[in-house]
Predict the structure.
Amino acid sequence: MRTIIAIVALASWSMCQAAYGQECTQVIEGNDLIKFNVTEMRVSASCSEVTVTLRHVGTLAANVMGHNWVLTTTADYMAVASAGQAAGPPSYLPAGDARVIAATEVIGGGAETSVSFDISALAAGGDYTFFCSFPGHFVLMNGKFIIE
Ligand code: CO
């Protein structure tokens, strides 16, 4: 299993190299203190597809310390966070909401998930925010997603 993951990781890395050496894959961690380990993520506009992997490095369960990674425009961020809170489990996001550019599932401690999405329709230099839509978490778990 580790070998398979390594091969997939290597293949992803190779595709990134093709995109002028820019990063097309990103890894972000969430913990039990309601924090992501980064407040900014940068990808190249030359990436045809971006893959974000979210690792929950805590130990608490998804129903008490759930984390996901959601991307919206910064203009939509607060409204989608509120709608997500109202939507409740398991996704904490409104179903089929066009304002959600990309989102992972909600995971608990020790779990990992990822999402791949096309950024060709997004604007380089546009104002995008990533956050966790678990109730209340968007206040502490958010950051800028920069396409350059
Ligand atoms: Co969270």
